[in-house]
Design goal:
about 140 residues, 2 domains, Arc Repressor Mutant, subunit A, mainly alpha, about 60% helix, elongated
């Protein structure tokens, strides 16, 4: 995975500062993603890279995960630009996630799931009724 560029790192750090000032608390990754209009997975990936570099600290508690700035001057050591390969991979991943979510929504909205469940219940009911009507087999073979 490629490291975030200098510009992307500045953007993430600026978002952390803005949200910390606006909300009067340390922001969580989803708030950063909302502010930057990015996917949460992309923001989390960049935060993990910045955390590995010592630029930010991702603090995980039992209740939430929040982000704070540690050494913002390390941003200047990042490359100014990088290739588009990570952006393409993240876009493909986000598209796949959206397709899966749409597929699940369609499954439940169309009633297909309910129809399958009802068919299984009907089949089990028929088997139960046919079982009740049969005389049990004599284990001694005296039928």
């Amino acid at each position: 995975m490629a490291l975030p560029t200098r510009t992307e790192a500045h953007l993430i750090v600026a978002a952390i500062r803005v949200l910390e000032n606006r909300l009067k608390k340390l922001p969580v990754p989803v708030e950063i993603a909302d502010l930057l209009e990015m996917s949460e997975s992309a923001v989390r990936l960049q935060l993990n890279h910045l955390s590995d570099l010592g630029i930010v600290v991702v603090v995980e508690s039992a209740f939430e995960t929040h982000v704070e700035i540690k050494q913002y001057l390390l941003i200047e050591e990042l490359a100014a630009e990088t290739g588009p390969e990570i952006a393409d991979d993240l876009a493909a991943f986000d598209l796949k996630q959206e397709e899966e979510a749409q597929k699940m929504a369609n499954l439940f909205d169309s009633g297909e799931h309910e129809q399958k469940r009802q068919d299984r219940m009907d089949k089990m009911d028929e088997e139960l009724q046919s079982f009740k009507g049969r005389k049990p087999r004599n284990p001694f073979g005296d039928d």
